[in-house]
Structure formats: C-alpha cells, structure tokens
User: What shape does this take?
Amino acid sequence: MGKKPLTRRQEKAIETKNRIYNAAIDIMDKKGFEKLTIVDISKKANVSVGALYHYFKSKNDILAEIFRKADEYFSTEVISSLNKASVPDQIVEYFDHYAKFNVASGVEMTQQLFNPKIKFFIKKSRPMLTLLQDLIRKGQEKKEIRMDTDPEELARFLFVMARGIVFEWSLHEGRYDLEATMHKYIGILVSTLRS
Amino acid sequence: MGKKPLTRRQEKAIETKNRIYNAAIDIMDKKGFEKLTIVDISKKANVSVGALYHYFKSKNDILAEIFRKADEYFSTEVISSLNKASVPDQIVEYFDHYAKFNVASGVEMTQQLFNPKIKFFIKKSRPMLTLLQDLIRKGQEKKEIRMDTDPEELARFLFVMARGIVFEWSLHEGRYDLEATMHKYIGILVSTLRS
Amino acid sequence: MGKKPLTRRQEKAIETKNRIYNAAIDIMDKKGFEKLTIVDISKKANVSVGALYHYFKSKNDILAEIFRKADEYFSTEVISSLNKASVPDQIVEYFDHYAKFNVASGVEMTQQLFNPKIKFFIKKSRPMLTLLQDLIRKGQEKKEIRMDTDPEELARFLFVMARGIVFEWSLHEGRYDLEATMHKYIGILVSTLRS
Amino acid sequence: MGKKPLTRRQEKAIETKNRIYNAAIDIMDKKGFEKLTIVDISKKANVSVGALYHYFKSKNDILAEIFRKADEYFSTEVISSLNKASVPDQIVEYFDHYAKFNVASGVEMTQQLFNPKIKFFIKKSRPMLTLLQDLIRKGQEKKEIRMDTDPEELARFLFVMARGIVFEWSLHEGRYDLEATMHKYIGILVSTLRS
DNA sequence: AATGAATGAGACTTCATTCAT
DNA sequence: AATGAATGAAGTCTCATTCAT
Assistant: This one.
C-alpha cells in the first residue's frame, strides 16, 4: 500500500523490540507476573536496560503491548474459523477457540487477566464481545436463538460464564482439560438459549 | 460454660489484635491488596511493627485471618437463612446471599479474591461449596433437581458461573446491581437443572 | 555449714532459674548460638519474658552463667580422676577428659567457644590451665618431663594444640571421633616432652 | 594477549567494586564480622545499597570474595618463596609465611576465621593444605620425613596445630609475636616428624 | 542507538528490652 | 514475683527508573 521499505536500521529496531516483547512473554509465562522484572527481561532479550526503556516507556507499556497483541491474535484467528452450520453450534465453537486460546497462552498469562491491576488492559474483550454479539444477532434472525433477550445481554452472559470457567481453571493451575470443560459447560448454557 | 472473665489486660490485647485486623481490612479495601504493607497497617492501627508481629506470624498470616473470617461469616449467615420451599429456589436464594455478601465486602475486597496471589487462601470456598452440594443432593432426593449429574459437579458448575458474574461486576467497579444480575443469571442456570 | 534452710519460695526461685538455664543450654545446643533468643528461651522454660529478666539481667548474663557452670563442672570432674602412674600419661589422660568434655557439651556449644564475641567468657580456661601447669611441674620434679622449658609455657603449648584439634573437629560438625583424635595427637606431642 | 583496553566507564565500575570490597574489609577489620552490615558498607564506600547489590549477589557473596582473595594471595605468595634446602626446614618456612600472613591480615580479620558462621568459607584452606601435602610427600620421598603416616594426615596434623596457635594469638588480641611463636612451636612439631 | 552503573525508597522481618498491670 | 504486650531500631534485599558516557 505504498509503504516505503524499511531501512536496515529500522528493521533491526523492530527486531529488537520483538525480542524484548518475546522475552517478557516468556518470563511472565514461566515465572509469573510478580516476578517479571526489567532486568530479567533485558537479560533474556540480550539488550541493555537502557535500550529497553528506549523501546518501551515503562514496564506497564510492555504489558499493554502484550495484551494488545494477544487480543489481536485471538480476534483474527477466530473470525476466520467458525465452520458449523447452526449458530448455536458456532457459539460453542467460538468458546472452543476461546478455551484453546487460553491454554495456548499458558496458565500464568491467563491468570494475569484476572489481576485487578490489569483491569486497565481489559478493553481487550471489546472486539471479542462484538464478534459474539454479531453471531447471536444472526442466530436470532435465523430463529435459532430465542428472542426474549437482546444480543448484547446474551453475549455478556455467555462471556461472563466463560470467564468464570477460565478463572476456575487458572486457579487449579491448569491441571485439567480446559477445552473439554468449556465445551461441556457452554454446551449446557447454549441449550438454554435455543428457541 | 465457666470461662473465666478476661482481665483488663487480656481485653486490651484482643482489642489491639482487632485494631490491627481492622486496619488491614480497611487498607486492603481502600488501596488494594498490592498496596497492603506492614508499616501502613501498623501506623493505621497505632501499634508498633513489633506488636503486629506479636499477633500475626507474617503478612500472609493476616491475610489468612481476613479470608478465614470472611468465610466464616458467610457460612453462618447463609446457613441460617434459606427459607424457600423448593430446593431450586433455595439455590437461587443461596446465590442471592453470595451476591449480597460480595457487595457488603466491597468491590476492592472482592477484587482481591481474583488475585492469583490469593489462590493460596481460596481453600476458603470449600465450606461454601459443601453447603451448596448438600443443598443439591437434597434436591435430587426430592426429585426437584435432575439426576444425570452428581451434586459435586453441579455445585462446581454453579459456583464457577457465580464467580464469573462477580468478577465481571468487580471489573466494572461495582457500578451496577450485582444482586439483581446474580439473581437473574443464576435463575437461568437453575432452570436448566430442574428435573 | 550453718546455712539456713531455704524457704519454699526460695527453692522455687532456684528451680525456675535452673529451668531457664537449662532451656538456654538446650536451644543453644540444638539451634546454635545465633538462634538463641529470649522469647524462645522463655517459652521453653515455661516462664514469661519478664520473669527471665527477673533472674538474669541480660542475655549476656545467661551466657556468662552457662560458661561459668561448664568450667566449674570440668575442673572438678578432671581433678578427681587422673589415675595413671606417670605424669606424661596423666597429661594424655587430662586431654582425654578435655575431649570427652567437649563431646558432651555438643558441637554447637563447643563452637561458641571459638566465637570472638565470647572471648569475654574465656577467663574460663584459667583454672584448667593452672591444673595442667601443676601436673607438668610435678612431672619435671619427678624427672619424667624435660626441663628446658618452664611449666607455664609447656602447658600453654599443649593447650593451644588441643584447642586447634577441637576447632578442627567443630568445623567438621563433630562428624568424627574427637576423643580418639585427641588421644593420638596429644600422645605424639607428649612424646616430645619426655625427658 | 590482545585484550581490549578498558573504557573509562569500565574502569570506573571496577573501581567502584573495589571500593565496596575495601570498605567491607575495613569494617570487618575494625568492627568485626558480626557488625558488618550492608548499609555501613555502602556508606563507607559512598555508593547506594543498590549499587552494592549490583556488584555482589548478597552479603555472603562479599564475604566469599574476601576469603577467596585472601586465599589466592597466600597461595601464590608462599609457593614462590620456599628457599630452604631440606623439606623439614621448608615446612617450618611454610608456617612462617602462614604466621606472617595472619599478622598482615590483622587480628580482627583473623578472628573472623574462627567464627563458626564462617565455616562455610573455609573450603578456603584447601589449596593451602594441598600445597603442604605435596611438600611432605616430597620429604618422604627424600627420606627426610618419617614414613609411618601418610602425607594427608601429617599435613592435617600440622595445620590443626597451626590454627590452634593462631587462635590463641587472636584471643590475646595479637599482643605477642605470632611469627616467633609459630616458628618455635612448629619447629618442635616438625622435629617429631623427621625420620 | 545503546549501555549498564547507580539510585534510594520501601518491602518484610527479628529481637533485646521495658513496663503497666 | 510474674506476665506478656508493646516498642522500634536495625537488618537484608528488590527493583523501576534515570543518565552520563
């Protein structure tokens, strides 16, 4: 789209920023949010502390980037892979993805989403929520979903439940199969919604 | 039962311990778990740091006490106040109490329960869970609840959902009516369970 | 000797003081000098902190008592049990007792004797040293010990060596047989001294 | 061998580390091991506490460095200066160095070596001990030392004695001539060993 | 663009000692 | 004579951030 090609220097800068980012992800996943320190990140990324502050203006800035990317990844991923015929089935499928995404993110990472400190970053659920609302609206139009509640509320209801399920799982340190549990519980919930 | 009355000194000691405890609650509620420090607690309680350690083995010990008391309060409160005739209605009532309890605890306090660092203390939900299981079992015996799932799993399911609801509420800083939302959502879920 | 019999109160006081003393010994032996705290001592002795300070005016006061008693015990013990015929053999025997005494005191207790902080208490070796000097003097009179060095210096020499041996042993946490090693090493040294 | 010259920054960093190290030595020497605190060290070195932890992992790490350097110094020093013809004389010479080394280190510093807390660091004597063993072995080969005991045991024996001598000296606050005493006492001991 | 030395406030915890009861 | 609640200074260590080079 007419973007100028990057100079070698710019490329290297981006690569450095990514290296920092990945190091942060890695540490957070392995040692948890509380243990995530600037010095550790820079060591792992093979970058000086100063350089790190060159790319991110604060520790929070790194975290924000992490959540932003995670969200982006999830949205694009799911949108392109709902295959089932009926909308209720697609909803279940949607949450299958949601579970899979959390498993892939790792328990530690997931736990962070339940950290009140992180609240700030949870604008994140917005696009995911919208997506689900659209799905429900379509289901109501096709008369596959009951119509006594509006899509916004139903979507929120489902999401709230899903988050409860994930929280429970993270509490148990991911020792059981989140995807199976999610599938089952959401299945029950969705059955309530059929018209 | 023949207990000796406390000396004035003993009374004062208990009062001091309570003062420390209340100071901790207060700070946690106002500034959140992460900001809860030993020095702040002792200042607020008007005691020396040493006194604090005289009464509590460690910072964690204070937290454990907080959660223990909260749990105790909730359990006794609820047990004595389920009035509805049918078990499904009692279950809804049970979660009405759960919502009310969280509202009473305050948003901040509630948020703390979703802090992964607190995981350790969430043995706490155990008695509450047991209580719910007993309720469901009774409902199955009375044929008011469907029998294709065992009480343990049903209880867990409901609890997971309730926690999701509370988390959502805490995320929104308690700006809407938790009790109403809880009542409605749990109502939907319980309707799934009737036989 | 005309001493008045103790009143029951005085007896109890002495017994309490001993209980404190024994508790201190016990803790020092099990957990080491650094871990010896006033609160622990009072707990173990079943006495209040205040009472402890009634009997001893400071923590150091307790320590001084410990070393004083140890010294007293050793002196009287050894004096009455040197049985060998020749003086060189008696010297070896003397250090057998010294070794046995240290073993009985426990490694931890023994290590304390090498703590610079304790220096103050090491007036303790005085009577033990005198005893040894007397022994050597007797040996020189009986022409069993060479006479080119005076008793004071010889005694000091032997004592220095013995202390080295004990230190080595305490360094190794008492994992080998101090009595055997002492016997052997002192034997070698004493052989140097025979005339 | 082609090492790059240090930048001014690197030089300054090394100087800072040395300043911390020297401050620690100094305090230890003047006030003793027990009084050696992190805050005092940083004040004396004119650096922040943080800087201290930038260069040393922990307080123990500083101590370890002190003992390591002392050991290193002693080993290299002695190795290159044993001039006597006969091995027994070289052994005496060896301990002359040992005495001189302790005198140079200062009484306080030396006392620390007898602190049980330091035990951990007394792997330190290892190379010194090995050196002595080699010496004795050579003496046995040359038939200058008696062969009824193995070098390891003889070396240990001598060392134990030497340590006793040093301890005695440190107890007396270095008020007499350690080098003379060591020379004399070790002389006596070595005479026992000649074949 | 990059380094990493340096800061320093602030966290938790320990413990000998005092003193009102 | 006895209690034990209360003190508070002192200790070690952590870590986000800054800035001279």
